[in-house]
Write a structure and sequence with these properties.
The chain is built from 6 helices and 11 strands. Strands 2-7-6-5-4 form a 5-stranded mixed β-sheet, covered by helices on one side. A 4-stranded parallel β-sheet has the order 9-10-8-11, with helices on both faces. It has helices at residues 5-12, 55-60, 87-100, 115-124, 142-150, 170-178; strands spanning 3-4, 15-18, 22-23, 25-27, 39-42, 65-68, 80-83, 105-110, 132-134, 158-162, 182-185. With 203 residues, it is α/β, with parallel strands linked by helices.
């Protein structure tokens, strides 16, 4: 991806505050940031950690661009911040927009078991002449899918995107981002069934 913060603010319905910086990578885990140039840190307020608490640490590492869902004190005047109502929703909107500009074939891989193995097998089975992308590790959640999609460089011919759900309504949000050309369902079983009333809700 390659966007100005003003582009992101427009796409996700946010407000740009501070510098209008160019970003090429989204980070949500402060531990994963190695190089700071071109990185936008999206502060997710999760169950165990609140990314807003790590903004100063990220700034000290050289990160200057942030997406936040509440007002924060800018660490330096050269920083740029996109203020949104929900950071996760904003990332999903950005992912959906980025996907809409992708011209290759998108293959969504879902199911109760075996998603990651099938995704890796399919990606590695592609001929060397075909440029392909596969979502990393088990990036199949509401956040993981969004992060996977914004990693697309745009010149890939095929993208394999893993998608997983744990409660009703999640697949609709994933489908809106992925907009798959092909869907592979590995299995529908008892895994992750706690929040579902029937097998049909998993589809």
């Amino acid at each position: 991806m390659d966007y100005l913060l003003s582009d992101i603010a427009r796409i996700v319905g946010g407000e740009l505050q501070g510098a209008d910086l160019r970003v090429r990578e989204v980070a949500t885990d402060s531990r994963s940031v190695v190089a700071s140039e071109g990185v936008v840190f999206a502060a997710i307020d999760g169950k165990n950690h609140d990314g807003h608490n790590y903004i100063r640490r990220m700034s000290e590492r050289g990160v200057e661009a942030f997406i936040v869902e509440r007002d924060v004190e800018l660490p330096t005047k050269c920083c740029g911040v996109v203020r949104v109502d929900s950071t996760l929703d904003a990332l999903q909107r950005l992912a959906a927009y980025h996907r809409s500009n992708f011209k290759g074939t998108v293959v969504a891989i879902t199911g109760s078991n075996g998603k990651t193995i099938v995704k890796e097998w399919a990606a590695r089975s592609m001929p060397d002449r075909v440029r392909s992308f596969a979502s990393p590790k088990s990036y199949n959640s509401q956040l993981g899918v969004a992060l996977s999609l914004v990693m697309l460089e745009g010149n890939e011919e095929v993208a394999f995107i893993e998608a997983g759900i744990s409660e009703p309504g999640e697949m609709e949000r994933l489908e809106a981002m992925i907009r798959p050309d092909i869907v592979v369902v590995t299995s529908i079983g008892d895994a992750h069934s706690a929040n579902f009333k029937s097998e049909r809700q998993k589809i």
